[in-house]
Please model this.
Amino acid sequence: MKLALMCRNADLYSHRRIVEAAEARGHEIDVVDHLRCYINITSHRPSVRYRGETLPQYDAVIPRIGASVTFYGTAVLRQFEVMGVYPVNESVAISRSRDKLRSLQLLARKGIGLPVTVFAHRTSQAEEILDMIGGAPVVVKLLEGTQGIGVVLGETQKAAESIIQAFGGANTNILVQEFIKEAGGEDIRCIVIGEKVVASMMRRGKEGDFRSNIHRGGTAEKAKITPAERSTAVSAAKAMGLNFCGVDMLRSNHGPVVMEVNSSPGLEGVEGATGVDVAGQLIEFVEKNAKFGKTKTRGKG
Model:
């Protein structure tokens, strides 16, 4: 098969592993920096130009689009979809997952467990928001934040009110969520490929930090998940329309609750913690599913 890996940095562990796994299984794979692509939008011969050349017709494309370039990256991916290239994750699904509010609404509609969440913009009604959640402690998030950036814990009622008001003064959209204290600063990341959890790890925040992001100094180890957690992870991936993703969950007193569905999960942490060849399983999934024109949306928004 002829594959394309859409990514900005070919040297990242995740991207090297995907290339290695594809080549080990006898496939040809090109690394394409989507920000350096130009798309030719025509009715009869749509194409993608890269480094002065028209890209060939690929059998499948594996998108690894960073959050900061979602708009342009998904535009390039849509062009591949219009050309009939099979996308591991479709452009619409990636856009859904990047919109924190929309993704939570879609998960809620499917009855998937979530922390109590309130969405607000430039509000001075901090007391009302906290009352809707059930009081402090709460987690306040910038809607556009990633990797734990823009996430603040309001431990007391007074502190939570101050944080909400401060974010409100910045003229930005925020999410205020109940703090799942019983999770103890730990979360579970499940890697879903197709309709199967292929690997799962427990992540712990560094001492004194409630955020468990590995990028922020957290640690990870292999986790044994329950049937409910497995089912929740697969259902969350389906709700987003993602074939390959990381589903982040907390263990609450009322069962697993989903915090985020990541459409470009890193492989280094989970492969290191579990010993699972996630990259190899991803390529195997592509082999079984790639087919010309096999997209649900065909590039439609």
Summary: The radius of gyration is 20 Å.
